[in-house]
Amino acid sequence: MDAEVFRAWIVSAAGVIEANRDHLTQLDAAIGDADHGINLARGFTAVLGALEAAATPPATPGAILTMTGNTLISKVGGASGPLYGMAFRRAGKALGDAADVDLPALSAALDAALAGVQQLGAAREGDKTMVDALAAATRAFGKAIAEGASQDDALAVLADAASAGAEATVSMQALKGRASYLGPRSVGHEDPGAVSTALILSALRDAARAGR
Ligand code: ADP
Ligand code: MG
User: Which residues of 112-123 are buried (b: 16+ CB within 10 A; e: fewer)?
Assistant: First the structure.
């Protein structure tokens, strides 16, 4: 997967976040402060602007993800901006200067993203956050690669596991973030950040499929 695929991923992620802006905001209205879709849509719009406006466009997958992370950190308020910013920056750093990214390198980058989110936010699986989608996805992806899955299949497993991880947050009580203020009343709602993570990873699956 080359820089074109990663650029296409970010463009596709921006599109899917924009298309789901109101849905994400409604999920956040139930257990938060009704701004998650607005926050992320604004952030990804800024990312698209940054990618286009750059005097020297980022030429490697790592540089694209690093620019994405930096922009999200500077443009998105709330908890999710710094967390997603950290995730993309750590993934970008893990990819280094490579012009082409294979499945093991992508797996390592996603693991680094998860580690960054957990370092910053201290959420564990089961706390009803984006970690529930990201951790399930990275684990399933690593397993699929170890079992010799094709790129398409491994990325389908990644996206499906993220969605399942997001759905699993419905029955959880939030222990981190704003939703935790609700205590047991947070049960019964899907976590907005877990849903946006699943959307962003589904965009990766689609961009890689289209880029072959
Ligand atoms: P805020 O809660 O500040 O309004 P957003 O609404 O943009 O920020 O994002 C909320 C999402 O952020 C939650 O649904 C959850 O997935 C994620 N989140 C919040 N706190 C944490 C944390 N400590 N670790 C991981 N994810 C978190
Ligand atoms: Mg919010």
Answer: bbbebbbeebeb
Measured by CA distance, the residue closest to atom 7 of ligand 1 is 36
For the chain (212 residues), the mean pLDDT of every run of 10, in chain order, is 97 98 97 96 97 92 98 93 98 98 98 98 98 98 98 98 98 96 96 98 96 76
Any atom of ligand 1 within 6 Å of the Cβ of 130:
yes
Q: Give nearest CA residue, ligand 1 atom 21.
A: 177
Tell me, in angstroms, the distance from the centre of ligand 2 to residue 31's CA: 8
For the entire predicted model, the pTM comes to 0.97
- Cβ neighbors of 152 (< 8 A, separation 6 or more) are 208, 209, 212
Gap from CA of 20 to ligand 2 centroid (Å): 15
- DSSP output for 90-145: HHHHHHTT-SB--HHHHHHHHHHHHHHHHHHH---TTSSSHHHHHHHHHHHHHHHH
For residue 54, the model assigns a pLDDT of 86
Please give the pLDDT value at position 3. Answer: 97
Spacing, Cα 27 to ligand 2 middle (Å): 9
**Ligand 1 near 189 CB (within 6 A):** no
Whether the CA torsion 99, 91, 189, 143 is positive or negative: it is positive
Q: Specify the pLDDT at position 211.
A: 81
Per-residue tokens: 185: 């009343």
